[in-house]
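Notebook B, p. 112. Complex prediction, attempt 2.
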Amino acid sequence: MGRSPCCEKAHTNKGAWTKEEDQRLVAYIRAHGEGCWRSLPKAAGLLRCGKSCRLRWINYLRPDLKRGNFTEEEDDLIITLHQILGNKWSLIAGRLPGRTDNEIKNYWNTHIKRKLLARGIDPKTHRQLISAPATATGAPSGGRREGQQAAASPQSSGGAGHSSDDDSASLGGIDLNLSLSPPSQPSSPVAAVVAN
DNA sequence: AATATGCGCAACCGCTCCGTG
DNA sequence: ACACGGAGCGGTTGCGCATAT
């Protein structure tokens, strides 16, 4: 439609960030905070679009990021939350201190989905598959795109088109506070969920 | 040792939501 | 009440690395 682009693409860098760009962004945010992303690149002297800066900061440069492998505890928590929330990665990330929505999304698509399939569980509905998949040992046959296509289909647009309508009531009394909160406070994520 | 294939992460794109005038 | 602009979110893609053949 007639929507103006978020930035002047002709004059912005794309692709991987350089160390210098990272340093500029970090230095600017340390000095001025996360203000208006649209104007930030210019103010910070970066040839990037504001969206790109925001993403880089949130997913990679933020000082409170955990990074590193997910624990079993986090695994289980993600699965539980996904069962309730569907692909609401930002909400799930809000319950996992130090983790980002992008990181969780990637982790889901690469690890957890396969793990659930191996257990004979449909990662979309969290229900037992009727017949265990032939590739129950883990590797989904075919290319990686296949898996992603499967993940993308019906519930993608807009609403939370997942299975929570009748699942959420049967989660053993786990009462989630779904209001948005900064991904910080609870020292033990699982404890926090159960506590809520 | 060289090549092919698969995997995982980082980043981009387009859409939707929300606040403001 | 409506239109516009900015921010945020989820899906998808590209690239580099690791492993298998």
